[in-house]
Design a protein that fits this description.
- The protein has 422 residues and is of the alpha+beta class.
- Helices cover 41% and strands 22% of the residues.
- The chain has helices at residues 10-27, 51-71, 74-94, 103-126, 134-159, 165-194, 257-271, 273-276, 341-352, and strands at residues 38-40, 161-163, 200-208, 219-226, 229-235, 239-245, 280-286, 293-299, 301-302, 305-306, 310-316, 321-327, 360-368, 371-379, 391-394, 406-407.
- The strands form four sheets. It has an eight-stranded antiparallel sheet with strand order 3-4-5-6-12-11-8-7, covered by helices on one side.
- Helix 1 runs antiparallel to helix 2 and helix 3 (74-94) packs parallel to helix 5.
- The longest helix is centred in the middle third of the chain and has 30 residues, at 165-194.
Length: 422
């Protein structure tokens, strides 16, 4: 076409071939990418260090250089190649090309266009060639750039689903690194609970939801299977959750309740410091004779209110741990209690509307519609456990709480009340 119009053809041919090359590299189907109408919108933090970004810069710079040498309008050329980059990324997002739309690629391509245009302008200046109508070039370039930004930005805002692949990859990398540390921690915990001869056969990790506002980030729940049983905990909080020995038979041991309590206290101080601090320890024997099993519980009270944390240990007469269950919940800040036990029982009796005596009343922290409240749990005390006749009464307002309330597990009779009531 250039030769037919008696115009120089080498630069025009080189630019045309280069544009075809850009289209081939960016728009031919590949075997990678996101779903349609998705784009990686992660910030281009590795623009000049990533190999992929450097290749994208190199892809657009020569074409912009050729265009400036041909048209002598560097501002318009830079804007045009920036618009071309935006069109390419939108095409990758909209089509099933197996390509990944990426803001980082867009920034790299635009950087390449700017560098190529700048190199072309410098070449024209050094060759003392006059640029083509500088003011018109500036006006056209700024208008085209603004139009491209509005068009591409509008499509991104209205149609594109944003995905931060960089952050997702960083998170995966961080999880892989922390999984190794979690394995080392759970191995040490297994040996501390089951004995120094414990051998970990297998570990399994899974992401756990963050329940506390101050935890932040992602948690791993890790479970280890050993030659003595299973144990699980939460990482990176380093809080053990449960364990169960594979040998649940009661050993014939000579330790009494006092010795077992001391052994449990040492275990709690080392592996459950959050539960042991400020808590009340109680020991309850199960069975008689040398095969007695001991249930050791830790509960914490604040102003007479049972906190949601809990720790239950089961040990044999030899001090061997048969298992434990731990609930790690920070002590909530509660409003002052204004309803005493007698009032709570009377309110429960009135709410029940049926004859019968409410003999048991426990004051504990529970979540009511997502908010921690002091709650009286009033019942007939049958079996020492909560029953269908139990009535929950707000210890501040005296109102009956209907429906589900959440928090720590309902204490059994062995838990008892606060130290001041014993």
């Amino acid at each position: 076409m250039a030769k037919a119009r008696s115009k120089p053809w080498p630069l025009r041919t080189a630019l045309a071939v280069y544009l075809v090359g850009i289209a081939a590299v960016t728009l031919l189907p590949g075997d990678a990418g996101l779903e349609s109408w998705q784009c990686d919108t992660g910030m281009p933090t590795r623009l000049f260090t990533s190999v992929s970004s450097l290749l994208n810069i190199a892809l657009f710079a020569p074409g912009a250089l050729l265009a400036v040498l041909l048209f002598r309008r560097p501002v318009t050329v830079a804007a045009a190649f920036g618009a071309l980059s935006g069109a390419v990324e939108l095409a990758q997002s909209a089509g099933h090309l197996g390509r990944s739309c990426s803001v980082t690629d867009l920034a790299a391509n635009a950087t390449g266009a700017l560098l190529g245009s700048s190199a072309g302008a410098l070449w024209i200046y050094l060759r003392r060639q006059s640029p083509g109508k500088p003011l018109r070039d500036l006006a056209w370039g700024m208008s085209l750039g603004a139009l491209a930004v509005l068009a591409v930005g509008g499509v991104f805002e209205s149609r594109i689903d944003r995905v931060d692949i960089v952050a997702r990859d960083d998170q995966k990398r961080a999880l892989a690194e922390t999984a190794v540390q979690a394995d080392e921690w759970i191995t040490a915990a297994a040996r501390g609970v089951f004995g120094s001869d414990t051998q970990v056969r297998q570990t399994a990790t899974a992401t756990a939801s963050v329940t506390e506002p101050d935890e932040g980030g992602c948690r791993l729940r890790i479970t280890a299977t050993t030659n003595h049983g299973t144990i699980s905990g939460s990482w990176p909080a380093k809080t053990l959750e449960s364990a169960r020995s594979s040998d649940v038979r009661a050993d014939e041991g000579s330790l009494g309740a006092r010795e077992v309590a001391a052994a449990a206290a040492r275990l709690a101080r080392e592996w459950f410091p959050q539960h042991a601090a400020g808590s009340v320890q109680r020991v309850r024997p199960v069975g008689h004779g040398p095969t007695t099993v001991y249930r050791v519980t830790y509960r914490r009270y604040a102003h007479g209110v049972l906190m949601p944390m809990r720790l239950d240990l089961t040990l044999t007469g030899t001090g061997r741990v048969l298992g434990f269950a731990a609930e790690t919940v920070a002590d909530p800040v509660l409003p002052p209690v204004t309803v005493d036990e007698a009032e709570a029982k009377a309110l429960a009796q009135g709410a029940a509307g049926a004859p019968g005596e409410f003999r048991r009343a426990l004051l504990l922290a529970r979540q009511v519609r997502g908010v921690w409240r002091p709650v009286w749990l009033v019942g007939d005390g049958s079996g020492g456990r909560a029953s269908g006749r139990d009535v929950a009464v707000d210890a501040v307002t005296g109102e009956r709480i209907a429906g589900e309330i959440s928090g720590a597990a309902t204490p059994t009779a062995a838990t008892g009340g606060p130290p001041s009531s014993r």
